[in-house]
Structures are given as structure tokens and as C-alpha cells.
Amino acid sequence: MNKKYDAIIIGAGVIGCPIAYELSKMGYKTLNVDKLADAGEGSTAGSCAIVRAHYSTADGVAMAYEGFKYWLDWENYLDNVTDEKGLAKYMNTGSILIKSQGHDWKKVQKNYDEVGVNYEEWSVAKIKEMVSVADLHEFWPVRRPEDPKFFDDPVKELEGAIFCPEGGYVNDPALSAHNIMRAAEAKGAEFIFNAEVVDIRSENGKVAGITLKDGTRIDAGIVVNVGGPHSFMVNKMAEGVWEGCNIKTKALRHEVMYCPSPEGYDYLNDGYHMSDGDIGCYVRPEVGNTFLIGSEDPECDPQEWVDPDEFYAGKGGHGKDNVLTDEQWKAQCYRLGKRIPSLQVPNQPKGVVDLYDCSDDWIPVYDKSDLPGFYMAIGTSGNQYKNAPVVGRMMAELIDACEKGLDHDKEPLQYKFKHTDRSTDVGFFSRKREINYNSSFSVNG
Amino acid sequence: MQIYICVKHVPDSAANITIVEKNRIDENLTFLLNPYDEHAVTEAVRIKDNLPDSEIVAVCLGKDDAEKTLRSAMAMGADRGLLIASDKNHDSIETAQALKAAIEQDGNPGLIFTGKESIDAEGMQTMFRIGALLDLPVATNVVNLDIEAGRAVVDCALSGGTANTYELSLPCVIGAGRGLNTPRYPTFPDVVKSKKKPVKKIAFYDLKIEPSKAGMKIVELEPLLQKREPKEIKGDAGEVAKKILRILKDEARVI
To answer: Are residues A234 and A343 part of one domain?
Structure first.
């Protein structure tokens, strides 16, 4: 006889675990299945785990702001569960958004005002006071080092920045997913690892369960796709789901660099998270007093859409596999080297290469599907780590409401945030939406 | 003093290496300045700081793409570059002959650096072959270097954490070891400056090297399949730290 659960969640990353946690708290018997060996070991582990509020839409800002409250109160969120690996830590560095042509910062500021985000406006002199190593010339437009103009001298100064005292990063993203798994288990959730889903079965037009690679069949009336970069492959396994999505997802290769902080500058303890559209980079401190340098996806950079299985197996060759490239290493480090002229850039690239589960408009799909009982929390596009606990609760309420008869496509669920006095229209994340041109179409969301 | 640094354009040790036709690798991957050569460049810059009239010349035998490695050396402080361009892979005999010929054609070396080895071939021959061709003394795995009164005093690291001290007449050939210094990596302004530095390209065949009767070629390359055997380290934080330190020192030998 097949094993049976109320809900099967495909994926045990930082989004899959909180969905299990919240459904379990609501009384659902859940099972997470993950093809890797432990919670958070997939693309969650490669996340920069940045917690910041600036998004190009008010809904995006509101959700991120709500997310802060969970990270700030991590132990209580986990209901004081014990994790033998210890607890992840939220490092509240504060977050600098450079006013630049690379960010529609006026829109962000408007969103901050609408949502009530606490922020300060910083002059160039104030930035220099707080980030002594910074050169505050304008370097726009973002170019690549292969372009001779990359090396042109700047002429103008920047305008300033918007500083959010609330913002930072989580020091160990994989551990944070593991923490939530332990919290979920304490509420009765089950997890199995090294288990690859190869089929999603349906009967009489409704989802019926999953089949694993070893032939094991597990039944459930609810299946949730939280497959990260594999999300599009999972959707294709479920009858009519892929075809029923107007917004599709794909796996996008992304490189993040570690570069040592300049001598004498204690970036680890004194530094801020900084989002700098003028150079197309975001940075945060990393252990070993290094700068973690991410890309804000400037138009001049190539985009590599890859097969996730090939990628993780190290196949595909230069620029497509899971190894950093010299070209992108130089692009990101030299861009930051313009802002921080004392930054020494080693010859050997060091960092992380992983995949974004990227949607057509870089805004996630948190939705039901055309197959009753099948739900999706996908297309996180490199910008949803911070929202994970909020998404867990929102998805659980969406699933519960739909299972109790809500026609979410016709009357979208209005999700009431638990910590901030605001609601969000979950229809914003619909699979049926048209591409949202308010999006930044980048990791900024 | 003219200081020549023989640098090598090597595959990134983190790259996924694919062997093609049994005896070569697919070169569509990241290449960079051989890490031991970084110590050589850094040391040459330190010497130049004390002897400001010195000139640092980076020399590389390689394909056109190896100019990137010369640019890296120049961003770290070399004044100019010499690229001995060749589409072929050469053995250590031809490599040393080419480097010797290019250096002699270019100037008058007071000091010649190499890395103690390259991380791809790990041949550890080039410095000795250059020394023999030029009739110069050679010291390798050098972890301390003092230039004083027309001679070089060096410490060469041996296994077991010991070192021998030697005195070499100048000019001499120095194989830079990891302990020689901490590489000083370039800043963005250094990179901008280095773009204006000249690279002279010489064709390998224009050096008119007499073919040696002796030779060495790669017959077969085999990928190293490393078996991962995870171990759990138990204990409180202090005990765990001690155990990790012991593993890094005694087993991995990286510190």
C-alpha cells in the first residue's frame, strides 16, 4: 500500500521548509521530499541571504518588511526548537541603497513611504563618513572590462543614498532552512532526502501523489512545487500545469564573488549591505573579512539559462558549468574596485556559482495551478530568501483556503501580514498574470 | 637591476578539467597566473621598492591568450611583458631554451624568478634548466630572499618545516615558494595603470632555437578521482578547533 500524507512538498529549501512548518501547525500531515542529502543544501545554500526592503513594487517592499520581523525574532518564530547544528543568525548591518541611474530609487522611496519603512537619506559626505573606503563618483553606465570605456575616468559625483537601519543578511542560509525543518518536525512534519521525484500522478483531474526514482509511490491530495531551479521540470511532470502558467520559470546561472576587504578596513564588523546600481553590484560582509559581491544583472552581462541537472553535475563547459569564470570575476570585482579603489582583487576567482529559479518577470509565482491540489511557490528569481517565512505562512493559508473551496483565480486571497498592519493581494503572484513591467527584471525584484 | 620573472598561464585549479584525445585538456576554461609566480612578482616588487632603478619584466611562453597572465603580472607591479607566442605546448627543455633566448635578446638579467613549480605540470624543472643554460646558480622553494652586497642570501624550505640557507652570486635564478611573502594583489587603479604597460610579442620560431635531441611528451593524462570521506568532528568548540587545526597541519598540510 502506498504511503499517504495530506500534503507533499517537493523541495526542502528555505521556502519548502516553512510551507511544511505552517501547514503542520494548521494540522496537515506533511512530507517534504528532496533529491539532496539535507535541508537547504540546494540553491538555498548558494543564496546571499540578504534581508533588505527595497523592491520595485509596494507589495514587494511590504512583504520584505514583514519578513524582517521573522528574522529579528528567529527563536520565537521557530517556537524555540532545538537544532543540533545551532541556529542561523540574522546580522543587522543596515542597508545602503545608492541613488543611481541603475535603480529606480525614487520608486523605491515612494514604496518605503507607502509601506512605512524606516529610512534616512544620506548625502555623499555622510556615505563617505560611514564607508570611509568608498569613492563616490558616478560610474554609470555599467560596462564590462572587455569594453575600453570601462576604464574611463569618472567626472560626476553620486547624488547620495537611502539608508535603511533595518537590513542585513543571514549568516548561514542552509542552516536557516535546517532550523525551519527542525521546527516543522516538532509540529509533526516529515522529511525524506536523497529522494528524486520522477512523476506527479493525478486521478480524475486532481493530483494524487508522487512517484520517486526508486519506484516508491507516495499519495497525497496536495502537492506543492518548491523545486527551486528544478521548478519548471517539476511543473512539466504534472498534468496541464506547465501549459496553464502564463508566467514560466527557467534556471539562470549566477556567480557571486568573495574578495578580501582592503587592509585596515573591518568590513565584517563595520560594513553595511550596499545595493549599488551605479556599478551593477550589491555587497555584504562575509566571514574572513571579505566582500561578498553579487551582480544586479546589468544589461551588458550575458545571461546563461542552463539545464539544472547538467549544471550541478559540472557539465556544460566554461560559463555554463558550476565554476566561476575569469570574465565575470573581473567584471564584478573591478566594478566594486571602482567604488572601493583600495580593494585588492586576487587572480584566482573565489565565490559561489548557483542557479536562480527565474520567472519571466523576476517576480515569483505563489499560486495554485490548473491541476486541482497542485500548488507552486516558484520563480523566486534570487530575491525571495528574505521572504521565506512570510511565504511559508501565505502559501499555507492559500492552500488551506483553496482546499476549502476558494476560487483563488476569481477571488484572489487577501493575505493579512502577521507583524505589520497590511494585507497583500496574493493574486499579484498569479501564474495567470501578464508580465509585470513594474519589475526591475533583476535580482532586485 | 633588471629582474625577469618567468610566469606561466595555467588552468584555474577550481575548473572542471576535461581530457581530450588522451593527452591534452580542453582549454575552454579559466586560465590564470600560476599561483607560485604571484609570490615571485610580489618579491620582485619588494626588491624594486629598495632598488628603485630596477625594471621588472614578466616573460611568458604561451598562446596569444597568455597575454592575460602577463597583464595580471603587470597589474601586480611588473613594468612590462614579453610574450613568446606559440600555438604548441612545449616540454621543459624547449620552454627553458625559449625563456633563456628571449631574456638574453631583451636585456641583461640581474635576477631571474620562476615559481617553484607550475600548478598544472608540476614539473619543477624550468628554473634549473634556465640556470644550467645561463650557467647561473639556482635556489628553489625560496621562502626568504635578501639581496645584499652583490649576492643573494636565501632560505629554501625543506620538508618537515626546516630550511637551508644559501648564498648565491648574482645574477641567479630563484624559484619562489609559498612562504616567500603574501601576494600583493592589484587594485582597480593598478589594473588601469597596467593597461598602459607594453607587452612585446616574439614568435617562438623567431628565437631560432636549435631543436634538442632530447625531448619529453605527454602520452596520457588521467583525471584524479578524489574520494570524499566525510568525518564528523565532535566535542565542544575548543576541542573541535584544536582537531581542525591538527588536521589542517598534519593531514592536509595547508598551514
So the answer is: no
Confidence at residue A85, expressed as pLDDT on a 0 to 100 scale: 94
Inform me whether the C-beta atom of residue B15 falls under 8 Å from chain A C-beta atoms.
yes
Contacts of A348 in chain B (CB under 8 A): 12-14, 32, 35
Q: How far apart are CA A362 and CA A383, in angstroms?
A: 8
Instruction: Please check whether residue A439 lies inside any domain of the structure.
Output: no
Sign of CA dihedral A361, A366, A368, A371: positive
Whether the predicted pLDDT of B149 surpasses 90: no
What ipTM score was computed for the predicted complex, to two decimals?
Answer: 0.91
CATH code at A46?
Answer: 3.50.50.60
Percentage of residues of chain A with pLDDT beyond 90: 94
Separation between Cα atoms, residue A122 and residue A159, nearest integer Å: 9
Output the domain CATH number for residue A122. 3.30.9.10
| 3-state secondary structure (DSSP) of residue A285 | strand
Domain that holds residue A271: 95-165+254-353
Cβ partners under 8 Å of residue A122, min gap 6: A96, A130, A160, A161, A162, A163
- A321, A324, A337: residue with CB nearest B187: A337
B226 touches chain A (CB under 8 A): no
Residue A264 burial (C-beta neighbours within 10 Å; 0-12, 13-18, 19+): exposed
In whole angstroms, give the CA distance from residue A8 to residue A26. 15
Tell me the shortest Cα–Cα distance from B167 to chain A, in angstroms. Answer: 32
Number of structural domains (chain A) is 2
The verdict on A131 and A206 lying in the same domain is no
The answer to whether the peptide bond before residue B171 is cis (omega within 30 degrees of 0) is yes
Chain B residues touching residue A149 (CB < 8 angstroms) = none
**For helices A388-403 and A58-72, angle between their N-to-C axes, nearest 10 degrees:** 110
Q: What is the pLDDT of residues A80-133, one digit of tens each?
A: 999 999 999 999 999 999 999 998 899 999 999 999 999 999 999 999 999 999
Specify the pTM: 0.93
Nearest residue to B115 via CA among B123, B106, B107: B123
Residue A227: φ, ψ to 5°:
-80, 5
Question: Which chain B residues are Cβ-neighbours of A137 within 8 angstroms?
Answer: none
| Cβ <8 Å between A344 and B33 | no
- Is the pLDDT at A42 greater than 90? The verdict is yes
Closest to A445 in 3D by CA, of A49, A43, A99, A60: A60
Nearby residues of B66 by Cβ (< 8 Å), 6 or more positions away? B9, B31, B60, B83, B85
Inform me whether the C-beta atom of residue B161 falls under 8 Å from chain A C-beta atoms.
Answer: no
User: DSSP secondary structure string, A224-265?
Assistant: EE--GGGHHHHHHHSTTTTTT-SS-EEEEEEEEEEEEPPTT-
* Top-level class of domain B2-207: alpha beta
Nearest-by-CA chain A residue for B26: A317
Residues A241 and A119 in one domain: no
Say if A321 falls within a structural domain. Answer: yes
Q: Look at strands A249-260 and A351-359 and give their pairing.
A: antiparallel
Q: Which residues on adjacent β-strands are paired with residue A170?
A: A90
Q: How far apart are CA A206 and CA A370, in angstroms?
A: 9
Residue at A403 is within a domain: yes
Encode pLDDT of A172-204 as tens digits.
999 999 999 999 999 999 999 999 999 999 999
Nearest C-alpha neighbor of B43 from the set B131, B142, B138, B124: B142
